[in-house]
Amino acid sequence: MLDDCALLDWLAGEVAVVSMAATDAAPPLIYELTVSHLSGGSRTGVPWTVWVLPDSYEADVPCRAWPTVRQAPPWDEVADWIATMLGARTILVYDQHADTVLRMHLPDYPFPRILHATEIAARAWPDLNRALRADRSLRPPLPRYRPPASAQDAAMTELIARVLISASSRARRGLRGGP
Fold first, then answer.
1. How far is CA 154 from CA 46, 53, 110, 161, 166, in A?
2. Is residue 59 part of a domain?
3. Which domain holds residue 111?
4. Contact (CB, 8 A) for 90 and 10
5. What are the b/e assignments for 102-126, b being 16+ CB within 10 Å?
6. pLDDT confidence of 77, banded at 50, 70, 90?
7. Alpha-carbon distance 127 to 55, whole Å?
8. At what angle do helices 4-12 and 117-124 cross, to 10 degrees?
9. Cα separation of 79 and 77, whole Å?
């Protein structure tokens, strides 16, 4: 199990936040992918979004994305660029499903380490899962209706910032000996 100190070190280091939207086909095919670079919990540039034409039926892609997706290059034309964008950074994805989809699309990429935003949030705020189960309106949306990759990117970047701020506050309180 990952200890909290190692997790905080990784989040405070060089991180590539990877968010994506994929089809419901089997296997899932990425049609939108956003990569952001963070250093010390702060964004070091603008997010890069890549649209990809999946090798699937038009109906597998939400209609809001189809005008952009139909003009996009296929995955094999952008895969090397994406691997370059990831580099040797710690990679943060939304959950285990996104981890699996990313690994499937980049089988030759030597992933240094991948962290899941859902697990980090659950560790930082243990009551979060109980609240999500209790309040139906807070349940995560079905995979088909996940927000666009750019919105996921913003949420995961904010998560890292809040986790690091929270850890810094706890550390300062511990040094002062206060609650």
1. 11, 23, 25, 11, 18
2. yes
3. 4-173
4. yes
5. beebbeebeeeebbbbbebbeebee
6. very high
7. 41
8. 120
9. 6
Give mean pLDDT, residues 5-19.
Answer: 83
82: left (phi over 0), alpha (psi -120 to 50) or beta: alpha
Quick: pLDDT tens for 113-133.
Answer: 999 988 888 887 777 666 555
Tell me, what CATH number does 61's domain have? Answer: 3.30.420.10
**Which tokens go with 125?**
């705020």
Q: Which two tokens stand for residue 171?
A: 């550390």
Alpha-carbon span 96 to 73, nearest angstrom: 26
Task: Name the DSSP class of 1.
Answer: -
**Confidence band for 85, pLDDT divided at 50, 70 and 90:** very high
Domain-located, residue 179: no
**Has residue 178 been placed in a domain?**
no
Residue among 118, 174, 176, 166 at smallest CA distance from 8: 166
Domain count, the chain: 1
Rounded to whole angstroms, the Cα distance separating 83 from 27 reads 20
pTM for the model stands at 0.80
